[in-house]
């Protein structure tokens, strides 16, 4: 099962309303910037890191209207699903015991949201790229 299939399955199990908003889009593969997470910093549990960062990425995209897995015109539902995915991502990585990455991800969420609120999506992407590269390249 791919990380996106796992995310889709988890959202479908969570709530009928979320399940009804899931897209039927094809598989996603190692899209930037989350592909940068693969590296020595995530060797302890690559699947957990990939799931966690992709869940947070999808939460970010839901909050800012560009989601890949959930399609809805209901902004409240998009925010709910986005918050659910932020929490799922943080929870998955917290289970690894890697508190430094949780801290990095918290700064990532805050920094990318600030950039989007300032209507600077290019800066938000730079924040994402830098954080994902840092997480992937850091050991312990």
Describe the fold and architecture.
The chain is mainly α and 140 residues long. The protein has one domain (3-137). The chain is built from six helices and no strands. The protein has helices at residues 3-14, 16-20, 46-63, 75-94, 99-117, 121-137. Helix 3 (46-63) runs antiparallel to helix 4. The two termini are 27 Å apart. The model has no long low-confidence stretch (mean pLDDT 88).
Largest sheet: none
Helix content: 55-70%
Extended strand count: 0
Average pLDDT metric: 88
Q: Can you tell me the overall shape? A: globular
Q: Could you list the spans in which at least 5 consecutive residues all have pLDDT below 50?
A: none
Tally the structural domains: 1
Percent of residues in β-strands: under 5%
Radius of gyration: 14 Å
> What count of helical segments does DSSP give?
6
Q: Determine the structural class based on helices, strands and strand pairing.
A: mainly alpha
SSE order: HHHHHH
The span between the termini is 27 Å
Topology:
Layout: H1 3-14, H2 16-20, H3 46-63, H4 75-94, H5 99-117, H6 121-137
Structural features:
about 140 residues, mainly alpha, 6 helices
Short description:
With 140 residues, the protein is an all-alpha fold. The chain is built from six helices and no strands.
């Amino acid at each position: 099962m791919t990380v996106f299939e796992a995310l889709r399955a988890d959202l479908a199990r969570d709530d009928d309303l979320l399940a009804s908003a899931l897209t039927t889009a094809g598989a996603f593969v190692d899209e930037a910037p989350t592909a940068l997470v693969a590296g020595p910093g995530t060797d302890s549990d690559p699947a957990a890191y990939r799931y966690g960062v992709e869940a947070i990425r999808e939460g970010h995209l839901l909050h800012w209207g560009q989601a890949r897995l959930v399609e809805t015109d209901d902004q409240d539902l998009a925010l709910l699903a986005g918050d659910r995915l932020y929490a799922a991502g943080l929870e998955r990585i917290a289970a690894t015991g890697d508190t430094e990455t949780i801290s990095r991800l918290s700064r990532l969420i805050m920094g990318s949201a600030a950039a989007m609120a300032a209507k600077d999506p290019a800066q938000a992407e730079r924040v994402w790229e830098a954080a994902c590269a840092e997480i992937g390249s850091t050991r312990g």
